[in-house]
C-alpha cells in the first residue's frame, strides 16, 4: 500500500510539471528575467534637448510596458521569451548634443562596452556619422530622423526608419491636387542635411502630381531675417509655401514674416511645434497651415501613451504629437525576437520586413519603402494631416497610406 501511494505521488508531480511546461510560452520559462541592453543616442543637452529628453522618456515608457506586462504589450505578459528564458530590456542612453564626434563615441561605447545589438538614435546626420560602425557590427539601428537615401538603402541592411517623416509629401501633395484649387508650390528649407533631404521628399511627392514648383531654395540655418527671401517667394505667386522641416523657431518666424508681407495662403509643416507657433507667430497668423502629422482624434494606443507619459512626467513636460512616433519600435523588436526565437540581427531584420505590425497609430501596419529606397525599412500605418481652419485644428486627411513607397 505504501509503495502504491509513493507511485501515485510521483505520477502526480510528473503530471503537474508536464502541465506547467505545456502552459509556459515556448516551453519552460525562468521567472528571473535576464536583461538585454537597448541603446539610445539622442540630444539630452543643447537646443534639441526638449525633444531628446522627451524621446528618452517615451522609450522608457515603451520598455516599462513590455517589461511589466503593460496594457499595450499585454497584461501579465512580462518581457519576452527565447528558448524558455524570459528577457527584459534595459535602456542605456547617451547624449550626442548634436555633435557627430560624440555620436560616434556613444555608438562605440554601446557596441563594444555595453554589447548592444539594438540602438535607437536621433538625427540623420548623427546616424550617418556612426553608421559605418553599427552596420559593420550588424547592430539594428532605428533612425528617428528624416529618411535620406544616403543612409536608408540596400547597402545599410541594419538601419531602419521610425516612420515616413518628410515622405508624408507623397500623401499630402496628391491629396492637395485632388481636393483644392492650389497649383503652385514654393519649397523653402534650411541649407543642411535635413533640409536637403526634406526638399527631395517634397519634390518626389509633387512629381506624383501635376502641381508646379515655382520656387525651390535653401537658406543659411542661422537666418532670422526672412523678409528678403520671402519677398522673392511671393513674387512667384505660390498658392502654398512648403517649410516642412524648418526648425521650430525659424519656422515660426517665417510664418510671422510671411503674413506681415501679405502672404495669406497655406503653408505645409512637418512635426509642428504648436506652442512655438502660438508664441512667436501668433495663432491668428497660423490660419490655413497644414500640420503633418497631427491627430485630432486619438487612437486608444495614442491615448494610452499620452496618459502614461503625463502621469509619470507631468503635463507640462508633454512634447506633443511628436511623442507618439517614439513608442512602437520597442514592441516590434520584442515581437520579432520572440517570433524568431533568436537574437541574431540578420534573422530579426528578415523577419521584420514581413511582420504584421501592431501600431498605436492603428492597423494595418507593415514595412515598405522599396519604391523609393530600394529596401523595405519604413513602417506604414494610418497617417493623419490636419489644417488650421477658423482657429481650430481640423483633420483633413485621415488614415491614409504612403502607397508610392511600396
Mean pLDDT: 91
CATH superfamily of the largest domain: Response regulator
Q: What is the count of DSSP helices, taking H or I runs of 4+ residues?
A: 13
Biggest sheet strand line-up: 8-7-9-10-11-14-15
Short description:
The protein is of the alpha/beta class and 406 residues long. The protein has 13 helices and 15 strands.
Q: What are the salient characteristics of this protein?
A:
single chain, 406 residues, alpha/beta, Rossmann fold, 2 domains, seven-stranded mixed beta sheet, six-stranded mixed beta sheet, 13 helices, globular, disordered N terminus
Describe this structure in words.
With 406 residues, the protein is an alpha/beta fold. It has 2 domains: 30-145 and 300-360, Response regulator (Rossmann fold), CATH 3.40.50.2300; 167-296 and 388-405, Rossmann fold (3-Layer(aba) Sandwich), CATH 3.40.50.2300. Helix content is 41%, strand content 21%. The chain is built from 13 helices and 15 strands. It has helices at residues 2-23, 49-67, 100-113, 124-136, 169-179, 193-207, 227-235, 248-260, 274-281, 300-313, 328-340, 345-354, 370-373; strands at 30-42, 80-82, 85-95, 118-122, 140-144, 159-161, 184-190, 212-219, 240-242, 267-270, 290-292, 366-368, 378-380, 383-389, 392-400. Helix 2 (49-67) crosses helix 10 and helix 3 (100-113) packs parallel to helix 4 (124-136). The protein is globular and about 65 Å long. The protein starts with a helix and ends in a 6-residue tail after the last strand. Mean pLDDT is 91; it is low at 1-5 and 7-30.
Amino acid at each position: 500500500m505504501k509503495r502504491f501511494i509513493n507511485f501515485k505521488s510521483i505520477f502526480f508531480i510528473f503530471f503537474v510539471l508536464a502541465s506547467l511546461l505545456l502552459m509556459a510560452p515556448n516551453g519552460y520559462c525562468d521567472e528571473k528575467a535576464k536583461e538585454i541592453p537597448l541603446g539610445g543616442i539622442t540630444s539630452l543637452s543643447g537646443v534639441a534637448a526638449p525633444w531628446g529628453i522627451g524621446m528618452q522618456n517615451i522609450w522608457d515608457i515603451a520598455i516599462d510596458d513590455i517589461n511589466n506586462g503593460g496594457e499595450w504589450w499585454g497584461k501579465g505578459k512580462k518581457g519576452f521569451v527565447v528558448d524558455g528564458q524570459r528577457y527584459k530590456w534595459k535602456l542605456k542612453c547617451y547624449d550626442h548634443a548634436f555633435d557627430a564626434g560624440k555620436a560616434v563615441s556613444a555608438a562605440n561605447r554601446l557596441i563594444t562596452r555595453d554589447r548592444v545589438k539594438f540602438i535607437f538614435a536621433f538625427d540623420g546626420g548623427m546616424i550617418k556619422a556612426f553608421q559605418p560602425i553599427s552596420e559593420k557590427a550588424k547592430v539594428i539601428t532605428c533612425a528617428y530622423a528624416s529618411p535620406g537615401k544616403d543612409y536608408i538603402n540596400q547597402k545599410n541592411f541594419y538601419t531602419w526608419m521610425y516612420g515616413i517623416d518628410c515622405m508624408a509629401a507623397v500623401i499630402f501633395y496628391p491629396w492637395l491636387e485632388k481636393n483644392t484649387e492650389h497649383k503652385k508650390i514654393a519649397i523653402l528649407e534650411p541649407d543642411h542635411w535635413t533640409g536637403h533631404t526634406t526638399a527631395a521628399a517634397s519634390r518626389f511627392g509633387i512629381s506624383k502630381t501635376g502641381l508646379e514648383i515655382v520656387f525651390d531654395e535653401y537658406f543659411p540655418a542661422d537666418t532670422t531675417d526672412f523678409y528678403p527671401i520671402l519677398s522673392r517667394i511671393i513674387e512667384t505667386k505660390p498658392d502654398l509655401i512648403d517649410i516642412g522641416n524648418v526648425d521650430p523657431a525659424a519656422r515660426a518666424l517665417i510664418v510671422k514674416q510671411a503674413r506681415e508681407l501679405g502672404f495669406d495662403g497655406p503653408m505645409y509643416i512637418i512635426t509642428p511645434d504648436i506652442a512655438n507657433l502660438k508664441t512667436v507667430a501668433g495663432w491668428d497668423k497660423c490660419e490655413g497651415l497644414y500640420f503633418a502629422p497631427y491627430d485630432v482624434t486619438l487612437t486608444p494606443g495614442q491615448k494610452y501613451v499620452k496618459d502614461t507619459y503625463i502621469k509619470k512626467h507631468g503635463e507640462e513636460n508633454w512634447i506633443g504629437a511628436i511623442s507618439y512616433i517614439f513608442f512602437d519600435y520597442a514592441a516590434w523588436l520584442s515581437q520579432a525576437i520572440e517570433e524568431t526565437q533568436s537574437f541574431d540581427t540578420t534573422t530579426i531584420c528578415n523577419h521584420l520586413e514581413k511582420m504584421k505590425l501592431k501600431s498605436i497609430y492603428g492597423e494595418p501596419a507593415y514595412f515598405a519603402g522599396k519604391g523609393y529606397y530600394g529596401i523595405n525599412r519604413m513602417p506604414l500605418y494610418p497617417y493623419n494631416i490636419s489644417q488650421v481652419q477658423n482657429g481650430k485644428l481640423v483633420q483633413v486627411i485621415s488614415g491614409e497610406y504612403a502607397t508610392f513607397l511600396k
